[in-house]
Amino acid sequence: MSLPENTTVLIVGAGPAGLTAALSLVHNECHDFVIVDAVLEGQNSSRAITIHSATVEALASIDAADGLLSRAIKGKSIRITSRSSQIFEAKYDPLKKYSAHPYALYIPQNVTELVLGQKLQSLGVQVQRPHRVVGMKQNEKDSRITDVSFEDGQVIRARYIIGADGARSNIRTIAGIGFSDPEGPNTGNSSLAQMVSADVTFDPEPVGPLTLEGHLNGTVFSGNFFFFTPLGKRFNAELTRDGKPITKPIFRVGCAIPVKNGKPPHAPPKEYIQDLIDKYGPACITSNPCLNLTPVKVDQLVWSTRFRTHSAIADRTFTRLGAAILLVGDAAHIHSPAGGQGMNLAIRDAIFLAEAVTKHIQASAENPDVDDTILQELGDVRHARAVEIIGFTKTLLKLASLTYDSYAWWMPCSGASIRDLVLRILGRFDFVQSKVAWGLSGLGRR
Question: Signal sequence: where (predicted)?
């Protein structure tokens, strides 16, 4: 498809961050933009499933929340369990005091993208696909414009470029922006440096409190953790791949893979997922009759992936290469999925970023020599927020990686047993549950 020769804003990447940036531009009365993506529709996968309260609020502020609210499961709580019993539960109900959306939404990322894309289409905007950026250079005639070249030979001249093109961002790389852990190299949790995630169905269907919709369950194990979320049947049509119909309820499972266990396969097969469930999962979904009186097995592997839990952040989220270049989403920062913060921060960043870009466009119309203060301040604030979130997720990962090994022969306790005891005791108090829900919700980190 032919691209226009000129645009005020070019958005590169049509994941949650790019789509939200486009919706925010429209909401702020900016219509001269183009959004492109390097892949064809249908190639996106389930991935992130949680949209927290602060993100729902942000989407509602640009009139982009209704579609997600009508499709998603409204989460009631996050539970921490051992393989056989509950340790702690953080309910979202206390957030009613602070938000009109006192819940998390559980919805697969590809459905989130579908809903946001449909909203954008209803506003008359179409994502242009497939168009991969391969080069950028300052325009020879206008020092505030960048010529962006694509793999198919087309070129767009843009005044603002929003890089929402993922962790391997071409925009970031071509702009010469560094990307590394803010605490320096080798500061991540090496024991849980990799994870596997999958959407599965079971036979027979598992039963028990953990299988009820509306709860995200995290099972702690010695030096490891496993998460499990029932998604029911409401996303079966969107999660169907390879033409295989899905008639049973879908469950999201995920597990950290200790480095000592080796590197997981690129797309872990059903047998690999079953082995993880039997080793680390809650009793109600295992095939081990010693743990589960009604053993269950993975019936259909809908989707699976592996990924690393490392953290990195762009040296800066705003720079100039002729045009103003701003990074958002995974192009700007990545980190452990602990707490489900990544996509949420990306969406909120995109909304604030688009608002700042619109203000700068308006200021430039009044004064062509306006400086970049608006954009620089936005970049600095969102960079600081990302550093904060990276620290938060690292802390969660460290708590999850504690083992039940005793500290010493004369001290018959362990980090994990102390963690579990503290959670069991403090979890009885409403204010503790509220504090945990608040921390995860993002309401204090907008």
Answer: none
